[in-house]
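Example S7 (structure tokens).
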């Protein structure tokens, strides 16, 4: 026959499990609602190619209430920032898998740069909300008005690049006279600028830069000076 204290302990555990299920259900409902608002905003961006739609338009598209919207997001900008962060994180998670297939830091860097370039050169999956014109304009505006939030949003991209550069420094393939943080900043500026210009259709000197050309340029920047000079001499001499 179970003792009284055993029964009390069993009741307490049952209450804990019931509370856990209740909290989990509440969290799931909250995530579901926020996802519906984000999905509605994504649809509006893809359909209109702009981000000037209103919170009311998002609410109507989501078939949710205005009150529910403000329970999840303080403003439309907060929702757009959440979309941007989610999109970048998802893209980098997929790219990280591709990068991990290579042991050589140089090949990792090539995969990283050409993978990012494909997001904006028309060969990636269409209707990517984080690389359409509307979101690119928002991207630029965010960098100007909220630089801290912008840096946080692209942090997954920078973190992966830092890992690649650190690996290349450890093997002696990348330069050590410039700290990897500075190298990552320079490469990121080149990549972000190139991606934005591709999406906006901006060309300089009538040329469009490919992912492989972008990689060649960045590789020259992160490689030891001696290696760059050796390659240049070999090419000047007609070598491979």
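Recovered sequence:
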């Amino acid at each position: 026959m179970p003792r009284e204290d055993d029964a009390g302990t069993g009741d307490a555990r049952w209450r804990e499990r019931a509370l856990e299920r209740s909290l989990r259900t509440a969290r799931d409902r909250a995530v579901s609602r926020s996802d519906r608002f984000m999905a509605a905003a994504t649809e509006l961006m893809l359909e209109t190619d702009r981000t000037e739609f209103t919170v009311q338009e998002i609410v109507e598209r989501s078939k949710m209430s205005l009150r529910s919207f403000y329970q999840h997001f303080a403003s439309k900008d907060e929702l757009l920032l959440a979309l941007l962060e989610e999109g970048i994180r998802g893209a980098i998670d997929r790219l990280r898998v591709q990068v991990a297939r290579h042991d050589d830091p140089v090949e990792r860097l090539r995969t990283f740069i050409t993978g990012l370039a494909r997001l904006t050169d028309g060969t990636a999956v269409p209707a990517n909300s984080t690389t359409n014109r509307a979101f690119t304009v928002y991207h630029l505006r965010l960098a100007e008005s909220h630089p801290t939030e912008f840096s946080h949003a692209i942090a997954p991209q920078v973190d992966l690049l830092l890992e690649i550069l650190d690996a290349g420094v450890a093997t002696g393939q990348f330069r050590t006279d410039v700290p990897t943080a500075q190298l990552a900043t320079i490469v990121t500026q080149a990549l972000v600028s190139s991606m934005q210009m591709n999406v906006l259709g901006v060309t300089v000197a009538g040329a469009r830069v490919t992912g492989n050309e972008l990689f060649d340029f960045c590789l020259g920047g992160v490689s030891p000076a001696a290696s760059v000079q050796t390659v240049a001499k070999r090419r000047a001499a007609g070598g491979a």
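Notes on this example. Confidence is low (pLDDT under 50) at residues 26-31.
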